[in-house]
Amino acid sequence: MTDPQSLMDRLDRVESELAIQRLIHEYCHGADKQDLERFAAIWDDDAAWVTSPDQRFDGIEAICAAVQEQWAAFKEMHHWTANFVVDIDGDRAVGEADVAVRVQLTDGTWVRGGGTYQDVYVRRDGRWRVARREVVSSFEEDPLPPGIGSPAD
Hints:
By secondary structure, this protein is an alpha+beta fold. Helix content is 31%, strand content 48%. It has three helices and six strands, in the order ααββαββββ.
């Protein structure tokens, strides 16, 4: 027989993992659908978004400004995350996910790429948020000619 505290701990872990998994998906939906409110909602107030070794954005305001710059540079963006794993320790967790990305440049060219996200999550006031997301192992494939590789293909 399992004691009630063990059941509560297990339930908290399952709910936490699902909430964190939801953050991963909301990141993609917010970025790809250019939904700033949805994108901003995943981040902790003092979060850091490290998009490359020489680009780091601190705080929700800077993170939102950075994604808006991406939206100006790309007509469309599509992110798919996979291979998500997370380790939860109380109100802090670390996770990793692989990502495939396809973006359309303003000239119509499609570019494919991907990488790995390494994340830190925190739970404050009962809600999980991304405290840090770092893009590691990123790569780009050769640009595709206009009209090739669009989501409708």
